[in-house]
Amino acid sequence: MNPYITEEKVFKDPVHKYIYVQDQTIWDLINTKEFQRLRRIRQLGTSYLTFHGAEHSRFSHSLGVYEITRKIISQFERNDYPGWPREEKLLALCAALLHDLGHGPFSHSLEEVFDTHHEEWTCNILLEDTEVNRVLRRVADDFPGKVAGVIQKTYPNPIVISLISSQMDADRMDYLLRDAYFTGVHYGNFDLERILRVLRPVQGKIVVKESGMHAVEHYLMSRYQMYWQIYFHPVTRSSEIILRQIFRRAKELFEQDYKFEWMPGPIKQLLDGTITVKSYLKLDEAYVQAAFLHWEDEEDALLAELCNRFLNRRLYKYITMTNPDDTLLEEISLQFTSIGLNPEYHMEIDFPFDQPYDVYRPDSKKGGKEEKTPILLLDEQDRLSEISAKSDIVRSITGLHQGEYHLYYPEEPLIEAGTKLSPALRELFKL
Amino acid sequence: MNPYITEEKVFKDPVHKYIYVQDQTIWDLINTKEFQRLRRIRQLGTSYLTFHGAEHSRFSHSLGVYEITRKIISQFERNDYPGWPREEKLLALCAALLHDLGHGPFSHSLEEVFDTHHEEWTCNILLEDTEVNRVLRRVADDFPGKVAGVIQKTYPNPIVISLISSQMDADRMDYLLRDAYFTGVHYGNFDLERILRVLRPVQGKIVVKESGMHAVEHYLMSRYQMYWQIYFHPVTRSSEIILRQIFRRAKELFEQDYKFEWMPGPIKQLLDGTITVKSYLKLDEAYVQAAFLHWEDEEDALLAELCNRFLNRRLYKYITMTNPDDTLLEEISLQFTSIGLNPEYHMEIDFPFDQPYDVYRPDSKKGGKEEKTPILLLDEQDRLSEISAKSDIVRSITGLHQGEYHLYYPEEPLIEAGTKLSPALRELFKL
Amino acid sequence: MNPYITEEKVFKDPVHKYIYVQDQTIWDLINTKEFQRLRRIRQLGTSYLTFHGAEHSRFSHSLGVYEITRKIISQFERNDYPGWPREEKLLALCAALLHDLGHGPFSHSLEEVFDTHHEEWTCNILLEDTEVNRVLRRVADDFPGKVAGVIQKTYPNPIVISLISSQMDADRMDYLLRDAYFTGVHYGNFDLERILRVLRPVQGKIVVKESGMHAVEHYLMSRYQMYWQIYFHPVTRSSEIILRQIFRRAKELFEQDYKFEWMPGPIKQLLDGTITVKSYLKLDEAYVQAAFLHWEDEEDALLAELCNRFLNRRLYKYITMTNPDDTLLEEISLQFTSIGLNPEYHMEIDFPFDQPYDVYRPDSKKGGKEEKTPILLLDEQDRLSEISAKSDIVRSITGLHQGEYHLYYPEEPLIEAGTKLSPALRELFKL
Amino acid sequence: MNPYITEEKVFKDPVHKYIYVQDQTIWDLINTKEFQRLRRIRQLGTSYLTFHGAEHSRFSHSLGVYEITRKIISQFERNDYPGWPREEKLLALCAALLHDLGHGPFSHSLEEVFDTHHEEWTCNILLEDTEVNRVLRRVADDFPGKVAGVIQKTYPNPIVISLISSQMDADRMDYLLRDAYFTGVHYGNFDLERILRVLRPVQGKIVVKESGMHAVEHYLMSRYQMYWQIYFHPVTRSSEIILRQIFRRAKELFEQDYKFEWMPGPIKQLLDGTITVKSYLKLDEAYVQAAFLHWEDEEDALLAELCNRFLNRRLYKYITMTNPDDTLLEEISLQFTSIGLNPEYHMEIDFPFDQPYDVYRPDSKKGGKEEKTPILLLDEQDRLSEISAKSDIVRSITGLHQGEYHLYYPEEPLIEAGTKLSPALRELFKL
């Protein structure tokens, strides 16, 4: 079998202009049903409710991660850098393309409620009887396992892992550029071409020539701004809270043997914890939204209300608080109950900075898989040093965080309640 | 009621940078469930299967049409042009925002099979008991009817109609820019700011100052290129064909009393022709795709195959022919049947230039509502003339068309059939 | 000598993002004084008086032509196309970089008056005792001659010539993009990356894969628009006319033994036709403008006036005429003389379409060196055909021209003359 | 006199797309010879020797500052903010347009050597008998004085001053965007449209609505990066050093009664300190470069060498040092002298961070006119607070600086000297 396509294939991409496919394996992977399914999973979850342009899918992001990886490797090969193991090229490209394969609909909310992990699903899809698995096995019998190993960060050759999982990997570089493009918030633009030119494969790591330090500073600043302005946007958080509560309520009802008007197989399996790969692959965002469209008419008023809120963008409002005060929260909870609200569903405190907040931390030693290789600079004497040792600006943003928290709640019933609420609460909620 | 919002609202938009909302009515319309539903209808139908960036919705396009209309009117007001009837501003803005409200999922294919028309649905939604209707009635009792009149082109003041329906209207200007942005095909860029500056309201029409002729030429060239490269792209046509056949097959089966595994109310009503506004509003693309995800497992092999093709992007291939030859088509049909294909579903001839091809035609006198006001230039002596009388380049592209047609078919069964097909056919299909 | 630079050098360029230098010879050429001089010659002559952003120099354009050439060749080498003679790479790069080396200040106007030709000066600089010549001779003794041969189109290997001189060469592709960028008139943008990907070296020519036809159409449309909107802009023509008249007047005065207050060596040699390469190299736009700053105070009123007009942008106005009518022109000339104007300097007829108008003409058989290779498409059967045979749109713009002409004149004296001019003339000049 | 132009005039601008002129006074000012002269003064001095795109002039920057000011005021007027004094509009626009009128050729270097100040020249040009003065006096007799007052920051209405002179004024906003555009270094892009929308005139200051804080953070980060990557670029510093030495050497020679081959009036007056406004206006960059082209052939070897270095970009190299050590500098000086160099001209220490380094400093209390109004945020309760009190990120970059210094020197004589230099020096200079 000729591993190369005679005439390279091209996808028009608004972020990278073109995406080039040269290997038959990559082409075949893109055409599998499991990869095509990513067209029905949005890259940014519910962010489109805040930034209406953010309707792009994980399909386009996955192609982008592949393309950046291809460009990095192509630069390494063109310059014949000894630190790059040429035989790992196809593996790295496949892992880049497939790293998000297991994402479910609105993954973050789904995972919190059902305790599933998209990385695990990715590996299941790679290793079980799927079209993707069949394409990979045509390369070698142990190839699906190798790809899974790279994604799980257990593959013995660390440089392959660091391409798609480090503080400045192809995944992150693509999503910052792509999310900036589709939201229209141009804070996320950085000079990709410059960064690609200064990457070097050294001692099992991808490092950066010191002359490129300014470009890296700019990348880190862009990332910082994107986190606070897109990823942690309070309106997006509100929609994620609603979504999580839909899932929670459905689970709760299911466990109480509530009789759903609409309950197809895959969702039932999700609720009772017996879901298979085949069913999981049905569970795209179209499917889940169709469920919400049905549940909007369910008898359970809470589930119906939450679905209505999500579909029609009737999100919870929020107030900002600087100190969590248990007495106050208790009081709010009591008064909410007194006007017919359910505090378990109708009030939620959100600490954005407790999220896996992705400020650059050189010494992140959390243990566990969240830890990412720091960014290393390579000087002219081939010495490596961690970037915050050299850059004032990186040092200055390292560890920054914003301490406030938000209390989310439905505004309409509070307005209706009027003087049933205490003056203190009415002031707090600006009624 | 104060018709203005105290602090104007802003949407971040990648095409226009920001979209500004200053009227309470516009704000309320955007927040209706009928308008929010447009987030679940893609602007370009199945084009995302060809250009993966084209995942943007009619929601963002509708905001864009509103914004361009707002900018045109604001320029007219700032300059106090006597030709602009100031009292029509809110009407024009509402019509711009709502003109696509009645679009169903993958409208063009749906409409061909079920003989529905999105303009009619738009008017139904405006006039029946909906949230949109309630917001509009707050302006005046006859206001919903006026908005419907503008969209149906029956409103007595033609200048209001021409803002959203003419050869260079806000609708078209937004979609060319937006589709160019999201596909990444930059042929569609033209100088919007320049065009906005040279529009003038004269004698019930929006005309163009002659000094802006070059900008208009560029706009028409952009449009020409976008049609041939995006809107008529043969791969997109292929996916539309598949989609239409899914709808046709479902209808056929339904009429044969086939027992569907999955057949929810709104779709059943669509099939038996009894669909109401309430049900129609459920019918977004998420809902229809969820149907396809179920139908992929239907017993009817043809329906299952077509859904599988659509969801997993296994599209029909095509060959290009310059002359439709009945004998040849007959022969193909016969041989297709002989290898177990169904010519009614497995071969389809497509003449892109028979489409409502949107080349600029100054004298289009088709009668009927497709006809659009031509582009008029206003010279320094306030005389009007149709643009192709002055522009060599517009004249040169007027009436251009490409005469070839495409025959679409599934490739896999032909490959499998091998020598069961005649040598002539095998050559024709390059097997 | 190692012909490659150990670490490639990079120039930041707003059009191509980066310009990459990999050969020591290219690096050394850029650092010669003759090449650095191009920083003091504007790319677009007097266009900056119409489009204030157009202040970019031939230095940046020359780097751009080099970079596009480098990219084309790099694509040919990466794909190992047999039609590309690898041994010609350095020659092609040098010719691309140096093709504009002989441009003088405001070349077009200068050349018309003094009958010099920048191509000849380029060859003189390449072949005489200059820094450029020394760098080229380090490659081989006959290398300067080869570079000159490519630029003069006498080099025996035609594919090398066609890289920098054909209907879609690196020169033209760079200037359209660059002039669009610096003027801010984005009509000139086309999809360079796409075009670079579809170029193929075949039979001594650079041809285009047929699948790239639309990108070529777009390129030709961009070119068409740039010509009419930038290059032939009537205000720019006016400034060129003034400039030419300054040169004419200086020559005339010199021939009449007028005693100039300021007349340095190089300009004197230019006027008496004895100019050497060494002096020519002094003659940049700074030098010529300094001359005008002195001549503004010359005793000769006409020269002083023309310099004042040029420096302070007091350009001639123009009226548009559709038919040159000798009787009318005679009459204008008489009346101009009667109010103290000099028709030889104060009226000038301009036919922009008599310029070397660069519409694409497939069959241009003018003989002479202006003729450029047409654009050829390569189909899947490796057959070549001229693009206008396949593209409706190219055919439609081929041969388009605009027939009107302009009469340029100084407006102030006409206003002052008042009724001394006949009513007919006053109407003609809208006084 | 009608103060408004009947049909507004438009300049195409690559940064702001269009620049709109609506007042006859502005139009007349642009057409004065003093304003047109700014076309011959580069915005970024010698930066074009580092970033070849940076060839744009103060003419285009001045139009840009005018346009941003116009947009800010137009927003204030549209919203009828009581804090904006409508009667000051024309004054503010004129001051914005003319604030750079007095810049000489390569101002910074020129001013250091000749102790002139462009602000003073601006005022001289405004107040003496010039075309600009005549246009301004047509508004009112005291109008030129008012414009000068705004530029000198003595005008009694501080809000007018703060438009063109504060930590986030129209001047700075234009140059960051413009310099980013022309160099191609996109670090300088920030969201101008967003910032314009959140500015408010309050208590004699232009302040920022708190909701716009992120946009301001981004602006300050852009500024930070532009300073370190463009404005303080070591290669640009090298060219400025050469330039300063040319001026110093010319002055020194002049004071020694050296007989120059070429010494025209305006330069002579500059050297002997008798320069008038009329002569100063001749002194553009074309004029000065023409002087260098002559001086390249002067008998004084040092002056000739320096001019050659500047014109042909043979700049000094530099080494980086972290601690200025007098003994070492003494030693370098001695050895330089011993090989025929002149330490006064051939070595120069540069501390970029001693420059008027423009990091944002909220509490800059330097006294003197360099001090700029800090950026104030306006919260929903109409309270003002300085931005670094609210923004972690602004606080983190406030006061950052980089402590190293550079030693500039000519490399060629050191290479030639070979072992005549001590081993320590040879190591220091990496010979």
Automatic annotation (TrEMBL), chains A, B, C, D:
GO terms for biological process: dGTP catabolic process. One of its GO terms (molecular function) is dGTPase activity. InterPro entries: dGTPase-like, HD/PDEase_dom, HD_assoc_2, HD_domain. It comes from the Bacteria. Residues 58-176 form the HD domain. PANTHER family: DEOXYNUCLEOSIDE TRIPHOSPHATE TRIPHOSPHOHYDROLASE, DEOXYNUCLEOSIDE TRIPHOSPHATE TRIPHOSPHOHYDROLASE SAMHD1. This is HD domain-containing protein. It comes from Paenibacillus radicis.
